[in-house]
Design goal:
The complex is a heterodimer of chains A (462) and B (82).
Chain A lengths: L8 H6 L7 E4 L2 E4 L6 E2 L12 E4 L4 H11 L5 E4 L6 H10 L4 E4 L13 E4 L6 E2 L12 E5 L9 E5 H5 L13 E4 L6 H12 L3 E4 L6 H10 L4 E4 L1 H9 L10 E4 L6 H10 L4 E8 L3 E6 L6 E2 L11 E5 L2 E5 L21 E10 L2 E7 L4 E3 L2 E3 L1 H9 L4 E11 L3 E10 L6 H15 L8 E4 L17
Parallel strand pairs in A: 1-12, 4-5, 4-6, 5-9, 6-7, 11-12, 11-13, 13-14, 14-15, 25-26
Antiparallel strand pairs in A: 1-2, 3-8, 9-10, 15-16, 17-21, 18-19, 19-20, 20-21, 22-23, 24-25
Helix pairs in contact in A: 7-8
Chain B lengths: L2 H15 L20 H15 L16 H13 L1
Helix pairs in contact in B: 1-2
Classes of the chains: A alpha/beta (462), B mainly alpha (82).
């Protein structure tokens, strides 16, 4: 099924002046204008026309280049982040009917996909296009992988229209804006920043998980990054770094996990002049809304409004969104993601307290203590209020007595000789603020918490 | 520290944390009347598992449920001898 499209990503970037716009990573800077009549791909664009292409480069730059060139040409682009294990890459390639794969110049993939035609995207091979790009442009399917689940990721079907929908194209291009993200651009949150960088007339600085955080922060500072996004877990790491000193982005964005008041307060202190926004988005439901008042949760008044691009409702305790940004379905599934009224269930549980809704966790992430429900995030929020605490992970532990008890792993800002004291202070505040069954039976201090490649706390039960 | 002393200490600690009054425990004290509710008891058991490396409650061979404090000490002592 090839639907004609009027505007590919390439068309939308180069329909205006791109002077001063660039994309950079640890390997250097590429001027966007250089790419206007050039290609970084090892095969002619014609070879990709109408094909299903797996974007499986290890680094982000080859993916960034290939996306720019292949939207409107390939029938389907599947964005595969580098942390996906080989056997999952193989399953994803099969599900997506991939015919070709794009890798980076130094990549030596060890997956077993011999039937795929391999091509590279490489800044070093950028050369003028032999033939003009302009031919009929098709509506490329953009396939994103779900994260945070165990087993083979689900393939979520988007298009440039659904992905770029949340971006304000009416705003005049502003070359002074420099975007960056701690997300991988092959994840929904990172892809949003990539597209803002490409379509917003500014520049984009890519981060890398292989680069020490202090070096990344230094590079972001030097590049004059103005807008940067990450998960609360990404930001907690940043706040621990000594290299934060000079870094002063004007716009700090959190998404992908619950932003509790503690992290919002700490970011306010670290970036006193920044606009700090926490946003709700998911791979399936797309960008929902942003909260600009620097308070956790979101105003209840946002729910049920019938104006605006995104409609929000709460049903059975979970947040549901309806907008033009939602994915339509999982690849291979026939049923639509949205219900009959057009709302996509985000699976995120919210609770109304006064005039505000608060996120209390994921459906399914619930701990059941003797029949009483505990949302780990609710307990983590209390633990994280302690000034010595950097981050925490609350989980379930099987109990032969009451089914499960709550246990907590806590990372301190610095190794404390007074851990026992901190432990009893944390316990005291939990006892004060939480019902008894929510208080961790065991508080264990650990040097670090596992974070998924997507930047979220690794939760075994979600 | 003996197993008995470890158990007594954990019970005392949990009771204090959860603000429960417990009666003096002897071998014949009924656990149900000790002042510890099942949540407290669950916390004691999970902590003892970490401390002693023993989880006699999850042992499917062991089908007797402790009634008295003496029973409780005994199942931990038995488990430690296996």
């Amino acid at each position: 099924m090839q639907v004609k499209s009027d505007h590919s990503l390439w068309d939308r970037i180069f329909c205006r002046d791109t002077t001063g716009c660039s994309i950079s990573d640890t390997g250097g800077t590429i001027q966007i204008a250089e790419l206007a009549r050039a290609s970084s791909l090892s095969m002619p664009l014609a070879a990709f026309r109408g094909r299903s292409v797996l974007l499986a480069a290890r680094d982000q730059m080859p993916a960034a280049l290939a996306l720019l060139e292949l939207d409107g040409i390939a029938a389907r682009i599947t964005l595969c982040p580098p942390d996906v294990p080989n056997e999952h890459v193989e399953a994803v390639a099969a599900e997506a009917n991939a015919e070709m794969a794009i890798i980076g110049p130094a990549d030596q993939p060890s997956w077993n996909l011999e039937h795929l035609t391999l091509a590279t995207a490489d800044r070093a091979q950028i050369r003028p296009l032999a033939v003009d790009r302009h031919q009929s442009c098709i509506a490329t399917e953009w396939i994103l992988l779900t994260s945070g689940t165990t087993g083979v990721p689900k393939l979520v079907r988007h298009s440039l229209a659904t992905l770029a929908g949340p971006i304000d194209i009416a705003a005049p291009p502003d070359p002074r804006i420099v975007w960056s993200t701690f997300y991988d651009i092959r994840r929904y949150g990172g892809l949003q920043i990539y597209l803002r960088g490409m379509l917003g007339g500014g520049s984009l600085v890519l981060t890398s998980g292989h680069e020490p955080l202090a070096d990344t922060l230094c590079r972001l500072t030097k590049s004059g990054v103005t807008h940067i996004s990450g998960t609360p877990s990404h930001w907690r790491r940043v706040l621990m770094s000594r290299a934060i000193g000079e870094f002063a982005p004007g716009n700090v964005r959190l998404s992908g996990e619950i932003a509790d008041q503690t992290i919002l307060e700490r970011l306010k202190t670290a970036f006193p002049n920044a606009r700090i926004v926490h946003a709700f988005a998911s791979t399936e439901a797309g960008v929902g809304f942003e909260v600009t008042d620097r308070r956790e949760g979101f105003p209840a008044a946002m729910v049920g409004r019938q104006d605006g691009a995104v409609r929000i409702k709460v049903a059975d305790g979970t947040l549901r969104l309806k907008s033009a940004h939602t994915a339509d379905r999982y690849l291979g599934a026939t049923n639509q993601l949205a219900d009959d009224d057009g709302y996509v269930d985000t699976g995120d549980l919210v609770e109304l307290r006064g005039d505000r809704y608060f996120f209390i966790g994921r459906r399914g992430g619930i701990i059941n203590v003797g029949g009483q429900k505990v949302h780990p995030e609710e307990v983590e929020a209390v633990i994280n209020q302690h000034p010595a605490v950097h981050s925490s992970l609350v989980k379930s532990r099987k109990s032969p007595v009451i089914g499960a008890v709550v246990v907590a792993e806590v990372v301190l800002k610095q190794p404390a000789s007074t851990a026992a004291e901190v432990e009893s202070e944390i316990r005291a505040s939990c006892l004060r603020e939480l019902a008894a069954h929510k208080v961790p039976a065991i508080i264990r201090f650990v040097p670090a918490l596992a974070v998924t490649p997507g930047g979220k706390l690794m939760r075994n039960n979600t | 520290m003996s197993i008995r002393e470890t158990i007594l200490r954990e019970i005392g600690r949990v009771a204090q944390e959860q603000n429960k009054k417990i009666s003096a425990l002897t071998d014949s004290s009924a656990l149900i009347d000790s002042g510890l509710d099942s949540l407290c008891f669950a916390v004691v058991v999970v902590r003892l598992e970490d401390e002693l490396g023993l989880d006699p409650f999850s042992d499917t061979e062991n089908t007797t449920h402790p009634v008295t404090f003496g029973d409780l000490v005994r199942i931990y002592e038995n488990a430690s001898e296996v």
